[in-house]
Amino acid sequence: MVVYAGQGDPRRSIELLWRRSGEDDKRPGPKPGLSVDAIVDAGIAVADELGMAALSMRAVGERLGRTAMALYTYVPGKNELVDLMYDRSMAELPASYDLTGGWRAAATRWAHDMWEFYARHAWVLQVSQARPVLGPHEFVVFESLASILVTTGLPGRELRGIVGALNYFVRGAAQTIAEARAAGGATGEADEEWWYARSAVLVEIEPDLEKKFPMLHLLERDREPVDPELPYLENDAVENFQNGLRVLLDGVEGAVADRASRS
């Protein structure tokens, strides 16, 4: 399921995204029983617990003890709500990073923070980045990474590519984890059962698999020690994330060293 941001009225959406938290409470007259913040928080709770497919104005209203119609005074509809939820959830992420240990340590922390954020809010991965939400917290997330990487001294045209590569890598790695965790509930078959059943049949049908694909067999054998508490695919995803991030940052260091040598 892919959800595209920015499907609501542009002006109303941007006004809601860039409003200050608690503005509803500052309106003259009696204090309203609802607020945009309360509705957005309830929407995030629904998506965290039940997934994006379960999100609706009705479901959010029920969580607040209200009808769906009561929400429309504050949020025009589900399209705007998704934008607000996406941006609001990103407020959990740091706005800046300590650079005492250098840019690489800070970039590593940024990547791990994003990885953990996606684990908490897997539904965010279903909001396509083809059309950004254009909310303040979304800007802060990438501003924080850019502020780290600009200290490398690399020019903006190179940093844009690095920011994109890190973002796509972390998001893609987190997507694997999110889909693995959701697979059991969606299919009715646990990961371990799925792998065991198909691996056994595959070895029976094609006993020379290792000889036909020796390089893949080499990659499969050469692994880090696994966490026995994690399912197979999650161990695989964690190892790929850690090693892939290291290689990406090695590449950035190489670009920095190359630029220094040419200067």
- Give the C-alpha Rg: 22 Å
According to CATH, what is the topology of the largest domain?
Tetracycline Repressor, domain 2
Tell me the helix content.
Answer: 55-70%
Question: What separation lies between the terminal Cα atoms?
Answer: 48 Å
Q: Which residue ranges are poorly predicted, with pLDDT under 50 across at least 5 consecutive positions?
A: none
Biggest β-sheet strands, sense, barrel = none
Sum up the overall morphology in one term: flat
Strand content: under 5%
**CATH homology group of the largest domain:** Tetracycline Repressor, domain 2
Number of H- or I-type helical stretches = 12
| Mean model confidence by pLDDT | 90
| Topology as a string of helices (H) and strands (E) | HHHHHHHHHHHH
Name of the CATH class of the largest domain: Mainly Alpha
Domain count: the total is 2
Q: Work out the number of β strands.
A: 0
Report the structural category. mainly alpha
Quickly give the CATH architecture of the largest domain: Orthogonal Bundle
Task: Give an overview in words.
With 263 residues, the chain is mostly helical. It folds into two domains: 10-90, Arc Repressor Mutant, subunit A (Orthogonal Bundle), CATH 1.10.10; 93-262, Tetracycline Repressor, domain 2 (Orthogonal Bundle). The chain contains twelve helices and no strands. The mean pLDDT is 90.
Topology, pairings included?
Elements: H1 10-17, H2 36-50, H3 57-64, H4 68-71, H5 78-89, H6 103-120, H7 136-149, H8 156-187, H9 191-205, H10 209-212, H11 214-221, H12 232-262
Helix pairs in contact: 1-5, 2-3, 2-5, 6-7, 6-8, 6-12, 7-8, 8-12
